[in-house]
Amino acid sequence: MKTPSSQTLFSARAIAAALALAVFAPTAAYAEASRDKLAARCESGKLSDCVDLGVAWENGDRGPQDYSRAIYYYKKACDGGEVLGCHMLGQLVETGTGTDKDVEKALRLYDKACDGGYLPSCKYLANLYRDGKGVKQDLERVRFILGKACGFGDGESCYGLGIAWQRGEGGLKDYGQGLRAFLAGCDVQDPRSCLQAGVMHRDGVGTRADAKRAKELLDQACLYGGKAFCDDATEGTGGDGGTAPAGRCGNGADSTACLVTELQRWDAVNPAKLEPSRDYFKKSCAEGKGFGCHKLGMLDQDAKPEAARKLFEQGCKAGSMESCTNLGFQQCGGSGGPEDAKAGLERFVKACQGKDPRACLNQGIFVLAGRETAQDPAKAFALFTQGCELGEPIACHDAAVLTNLGVGVVRDMPRAVELLKEACSYGFERSCAAVKALAP
């Protein structure tokens, strides 16, 4: 079975559209207990079993579905200090599932869970304030939340915080503060943070130029992020932004051959910094916290792909969108179990809806190849754009190529250059080379 860090989708067999969503994963305790036993343990004060019981009622597991009962047990857990219960209750309240929709109440629940260290809640909270849906947009609050999550050791949040400082979103523009956030993200193996910090050291932005330090950081990005963060600059041939012969990439954006068509996963290629926390991740995963399952899965996905696949499945069902993406990657490539591209696509759809940028990229690759229903370049472009807006440089790059070619979108070379610059700002060197070839 294959265990690559990226896969080329265009060679995969055709698959049908799949939009079914996975549900929350029961913990080990739930797997061995009936609802009655869970209820008894919940009432005796074991709050994690209250959450499991809420999950059972919400999903109709081992009995009928009843959202009101799910809400009761999630609230009981939350009131007792089990932050996962706050998060699960927040999801129902935010969407109006089994209760009145109340975004303000959902915000309070996510805030409580975030304060308790449950990182997915921090991300949900930041997304609500960023999007301004059901609540007034508050970019200053987004920056504060990202700072909190970064302080908890979430690399993605450190990266988002760095971007906010760079762009002046939610406060002052400060490249030095941005660099500090990227370095914090790199310390916990976030490859995009390492890339951005490396580029800033290379170019002398927010710090003095330091080629040696830049190389160290860029090497870390390659180590942590895999091939997508290691590509050499595309060998361009110059040109005026036209198109190259089919099958050959000329200036970096002049042919479909310039598209990155390999599925991507989240990696921890060098587990040295995560390995000491393995016991903590095991405990978190056993308690139904998806981020713990995801971290364990990343530690094992190359050496123990079968174990990693089970962990990603558990993490995905527990709400870790990164786990859904990595599970889909394994399913598409037959890593750790049978190959099932249809199931892999389901995971990408779910994770993209949950705002995982790499999942949107992967779903876009499926759609562009005609592997979901009919081939739909316009939808693929929309997915790449979504992934780009969420911070995935390869998605920006692919959106730029389609824009430059006029595939799925009106041809617009200046806009293509903007997208390439966006990808380059994240440290994606292929896009940087294309900018030099295309920009006047």
Indicate the topology:
Layout: E1 6-8, H1 28-31, H2 35-43, H3 47-59, H4 67-79, H5 83-95, H6 103-115, H7 119-131, H8 139-151, H9 155-167, H10 175-187, H11 191-203, H12 211-225, E2 262-264, H13 278-286, H14 290-300, H15 305-317, H16 321-333, H17 341-353, H18 357-368, H19 377-389, H20 393-405, H21 413-425, H22 429-438
Antiparallel strand pairs: 1-2
What key attributes describe this structure?
440 residues, mainly alpha, Serine Threonine Protein Phosphatase 5, Tetratricopeptide repeat, 2 strands
What's this entry about, in short?
By secondary structure, this protein is mostly helical. It has helices spanning 28-31, 35-43, 47-59, 67-79, 83-95, 103-115, 119-131, 139-151, 155-167, 175-187, 191-203, 211-225, 278-286, 290-300, 305-317, 321-333, 341-353, 357-368, 377-389, 393-405, 413-425, 429-438; strands at 6-8, 262-264.
Structure report:
- By secondary structure, the protein is an all-alpha fold.
- The chain has a domain at 153-230: Alpha Horseshoe (Serine Threonine Protein Phosphatase 5, Tetratricopeptide repeat), CATH 1.25.40.10.
- It is 60% helix and 1% strand.
- The chain is built from 22 helices and two strands.
- A two-stranded antiparallel ribbon has the order 1-2.
- The longest helix has 15 residues, at 211-225.
- The protein is globular, with a radius of gyration of 22 Å.
